[in-house]
What does this fold into?
Amino acid sequence: MDQTHALGIDIGGTFTDLVVYDRATGRIAKGKELTTPDDPSRGVLTALEKLLEGGVVPESLYRIVHATTLFTNALIERKGARTGLITTKGFRDVLEIGRERKYELYDIHIAMPKPLASRDLRLEVTERMAPDGSEITPLDEGELLQQVDALRAAGAESVAIVFLHAYANPAHEDAALAAIAKKHPDLIVTASHDVAPEIREYDRTSTTVTNAYVKPLAHIYVDRLVDKTAALGIGAPYFMMLSNGGLTHIAEAKRSPVQLLESGPAAGALVAAYFGSKAGVDNVLAFDMGGTTAKLALVDEGEPHVDYHFEAAREKRFAEGSGLPLNISAIKLIEIGAGGGSIAHIDDMELLKVGPQSAGSEPGPVCYGRGGSAPTVTDADLLLGFLNADYFAGGSMKIDRDAAQQAMQPLADRSGLSVVDVARGIYDVVNENMASAARVHIAEQGKDPRQYTLLATGGAGPVHAYYVAKKLGVRRLICPLAAGVASALGLLIAPARIDRVVTIASSLEQMDWAKLEATYRELEEDAAKVIEETGFDAGKARITRLADMRYIGQGFEVVTTLPDGPYDASAAQSLLDAFEDTYRRTFSRTPPDVNAEIINIRVSLRADVPGESVGFKATGDTSDGAGAPHTRPVRFPEFDDYVDTAVYDRAGLKAGERFDGPAVIEENESTLIVGPGATIEVDPDGNLLVALPEDDS
It folds into this structure.
């Protein structure tokens, strides 16, 4: 049988989305099920079995690409493995000492991130390397094994090995790995040089311990999912989405699951770039709102921004320094607790607030009828007429308007408003929460939201995108095909991407150019090997050389994209020029007469999906839509009462059709809401292009 189908699996906090893409025809089949937190693979199997019943043949699948929030949730909820840390004598408390800096200077009750390895599970051994990699004190392997025995006796399921200056010389960590593997072959161990070979002890230790914390979970989850799909007759290879928007193979994902923390949001940013490009738009604000969170990312000139440091599980969502610092590459985005399941409440100051607490998938919003009692954003959307109770999730779920109204009544009684006015308030508050987060994120990058087109994805994204765009001053909105499962689509267009980094710490004046070039080539060869193992052609991969550079005396670096190699002494000026251009764009000026140095060098290898370019086509979810609208009462923010509003079946809309708002456009996985004064056009690829009215305020 011809293998023409690719499967994308995206597990979110509320829904699990599956997309099957037929590369022979360009058509897609979609599945959406509530996420099963106790065993996420169960929701995947339920959706997959329905797709197989719908005609997808297991033997026709040639690749499976997967993204999940499982590891992020494990960090946030502190549900990872019992983790031990073995470090150099004197460095046991580096996770608690941190940077010795408060993220809120005047908060005397400040909550700092709690270490993933408790102090009783953090032990020390005798060994020491110098910053240049020379040995000061040999590793005491006998003491090491005694400490490992103690950790195992204390119930440690996973162990992190972080020795001082292992980024400069990993010999002691390698010896520790060999000794532990010989005595405890079943123990899961993570060494710092294997996941974070970079200078700065706190960040390196935090990254290594985080990887160790989620690694057993990754082993269990990935193996279980592969086994269960294999039982259905599916033998296609699995790939996992990384936080940087690239793909890797299963073995690499199990080795370093810390790289997967933002895999789902990364896929959303990728698909926004793809659909933006298809619509002829290079500068896109990717807006992905699901059942639990909303994600926003900037796409400039067709590419999402990538950061090389990340903070997970923040104590305060927008406070830098309040989370766990991780040395991983990740698409730069902001994530807030604003989703369809976000719970509305009135605070002690009698103000209406929404989130960050979420009803998730269990019990979910009250209207789901699964035992929820707290009013949510989805309940409000239903009461306002934005959602069709008989066509939610393509009719696979029946939602209860009366239950939503009953849940909203206590808020109405406390506020002295009608139930509908409370629902209207919830809708406006959550939209303002997302718009405010977007303003901060865009401003931090020196951009203006009015320069962007907002592209809406996620089950709840199109329901809220129009009014988020309006609050931001954005005048154009795109709602792509299958927006409700767009992140799963993004998985199928993702390239294989591998990032590697190592610390060298040398000024340009004193650089050993032969060593620099050799180190870059070693990193490129290592990344190419993983690319090849992922099934992509490493020979066609795009290689980007980068460096973390700074002026001598500074404490922080600027990630600089460098010209292509090879490098020798004659390359010094071109590297300096690249750094100064980047520095000037960032800070508007450069200091006079100061030498520059390289702290870390990086390579990024990216190989695109092989074969013909991906092109998605509508499957025609209905046969009799014909684009003819019916009407239902909808309460828009611009009106004081419900208005009869045209409701379109998206599957029946034809390329070139134009109509005016207010309008509701329904498809199986989401609903687009467009306010009065806007115009909607269907482009040749099936995207809905919305032109917002000029601000009349």
